Amino acid sequence: MPSNLTKQAIMESFMRLLNQRPLDKITVKDIVEDCGVNRNTFYYHYQDIYALLREIFEKEVAKVIRENPLHDSWQEGFIQSTRFALENKRAVYHVYNSVQRQLLEQYLFQVTDQVMQAFVETQAEGLDAAAEDIRYIVVFYKHAVVGVIFEWLERGMKDEPEHIIRRMGQLFQGSIRTALEKAGQEQENELKI
Q: Which of 46, 78, 81 is nearest to 61 (CA)?
């Protein structure tokens, strides 16, 4: 089996298992038995299960960056770009409740940063908002959205995340544009002084 196909088979087996049971209950033996490769093949590609998990998240972030078009709303971009997490809710929950939680946190922050940066930059077109202010707005909303996702995970993922994200978008509709307009006005005032 070619190397890329082998890695893909290992990733798919791991995600299948992770959707069934907690991360700390999955062994390399489980993965290789599920995908039909030997332990040496696994260790040829990955140092351990955590390296495999890290690569899966990195691959998903790269996919989001490559495939995520600009949207009229940050909610649509966020929902589309986090499709992986939404389709693998149990796996995400298992990682969140493991010692490797930081890998999930990094993934969510990277994805949200990409989506918010693209959206805020489109909202800033035609305004004199400073790049530093644009970045502050991106960071603020990134942390707000990821914070809501973490709270959802803490509550056991009972609500539908798409509903939560869309509701946040409705409640804060126009607030990014307003913040950018204010930043642009302050920039103009500083130039007049």
A: 81
Q: Among 3.40.47.10, 1.10.10.60, 3.10.20.30, 3.50.50.60, name the CATH number for the domain at 1-46.
A: 1.10.10.60
Spell out, as residue ranges, where the chain has pLDDT lower than 50: none
pLDDT computed for residue 58 by the predictor:
87
CATH topology of domain 54-192: Tetracycline Repressor; domain 2 (1.10.357)
Q: Which amino acid does the sequence have at 45?
A: H
Long-range contacts formed by 13-19: CB under 8 A, 24+ apart:
14/49, 14/52, 14/53, 14/56, 15/56, 15/88, 15/91, 18/88, 18/90, 18/91, 18/94, 18/95, 19/88, 19/90, 19/91, 19/94
- What's the predicted TM-score (pTM) here? 0.80
- pLDDT of the residue at 48: 95
The DSSP secondary-structure symbol of 36 reads T
